[in-house]
Design goal:
Layout (H helix, E strand, L loop, with lengths): L1 H14 L2 E13 L22 H18 L3 E7 L2 H13 L6 E4 L8 E6 L3 E6 L10 E8 L2 E9 L7 H17 L5 E7 L6 H4 L14 H5 L21 E2 L12 E3 L2 E3 L2 E5 L1 H4 L5 E2 L5 E2 L6 E2 L2 E2 L23 E7 L1
Parallel strand pairs: 1-2, 7-8
Antiparallel strand pairs: 1-17, 2-4, 3-4, 5-6, 6-7, 8-12, 9-12, 10-11, 13-17, 14-17, 15-16
């Protein structure tokens, strides 16, 4: 590992370029204190649920603590209600010494929560319309400029597993269509909460309520993260038209960000273009992909998610963080 970092530093000194840390985090419902009519009932401000200035500030403090400790250059965020709450998070992070000059949010549709991004580098954003149906959140696209080079980041929050795979296919097809329109050999990172496992094609086939697509999955088949034998691409087997899921960088026991009924699953992903999986120019820094899992993000064997009281009337307590772990990786851009 020391030799690897020495080589990276040597390249930086001799040839220029920079190392950029990119993270992805589902923050579990960061709502603001404005009433818009699209809030979940427990996040309507100043009701018996006690979503108020005190609990809002505590949520911002808790989430910003996690992000500040990771200290990414760019972070993809999901479950952000509005630009108001995104701006408040940006401000809270600046108070912790982490400055994101640029931000964007996919807020053209009036969904309860949205995808967003914070960046230390300039960006131009647009939204990918997944469906006219209001229940489908738009995908956020950010074209980030680093060292004069463009890096595309797509922030996803696909339909939950309360619904079938056909709903997630809608997201995957919309994203794939946009990827096909990018300039040839573009560098891109697909980030966010896909509500699908890295091996969803193996896990969902026996679950009747999910498998309404004859075994086809959005994350594996449409986004082409598996080869013709149904195995996830490694850096050695990756085709030019395939995409590389960075979960393959870790051992199986570490491939998770969420716990559902005691079962660990990887719902959040950083999936990269073939160009970034290559070792020639701009690229993924080998060994840098990790989930961020300090002890304080756990409560016994579960994630220390944002807490509600056990006593009635049920209300926000101001304790906890998120029901997802953040993930991050580093990229050398030249």
């Amino acid at each position: 590992m020391r030799n690897l970092w020495f080589l990276i530093l040597l390249q930086l000194c001799l040839f220029g370029g920079t190392t950029v840390k990119i993270a992805s985090y589902n923050v579990e419902n960061l709502f603001d204190l404005n009433y818009d009519g699209t809030e979940y009932s427990e996040y309507i401000p100043n009701t018996i649920w006690k979503w108020n200035a005190k609990t809002y500030r505590k949520k911002l403090q808790n989430i910003s603590r996690v992000i500040a400790e990771i200290n990414p250059d760019i972070i993809a965020l999901t479950e952000i209600e509005s630009d108001t709450s995104l701006k408040a998070l940006q401000k809270m992070l600046s108070q912790k010494g982490v400055y994101f000059k640029y931000r964007a949010i996919a807020d053209r549709k009036k969904t309860s929560v949205k995808s967003a991004i914070l960046s230390k580098y300039p960006l131009i954003s647009k939204e990918i319309l997944v469906s006219q149906n209001r229940s489908f959140r738009n995908i956020l696209e950010a074209k980030v400029t680093i060292e004069g080079k463009s890096l595309y980041i797509f922030v996803n929050h696909w339909k939950s597993k309360s619904g079938p795979e056909s709903k997630r296919l809608v997201y995957a097809k919309s994203l794939k269509k946009r990827l096909a329109q990018l300039p040839r050999n573009s560098d891109y990172v697909l980030a966010g909460d896909f509500n699908a496992d890295y091996e969803e094609h193996k896990r969902f086939v026996k679950i009747r309520k999910h498998n309404d697509t004859l075994g086809i999955t959005g994350i594996n088949h449409i986004l082409e993260t598996i080869d013709k034998n149904g195995e996830l691409y490694t850096k050695k087997t990756l085709r030019k038209e395939g995409n590389y899921n960075l979960w393959m960088e870790l051992g199986e026991s570490k491939r998770w960000t969420h716990i559902f009924r005691g079962k660990k699953e990887a719902l959040d992903h950083l999936i990269i273009s073939p160009s970034l999986a290559d070792d020639t120019t701009s690229r993924y820094v080998q060994g840098s992909f990790k989930s961020y899992a300090p002890a304080y993000l756990f409560k016994k064997k579960n994630l220390y998610r944002w807490q509600r009281s056990r006593t009635r009337p049920t209300h926000h307590t101001g304790l906890g963080y998120s029901d997802h772990l953040p993930i991050f990786a580093e990229f050398y851009i030249e």
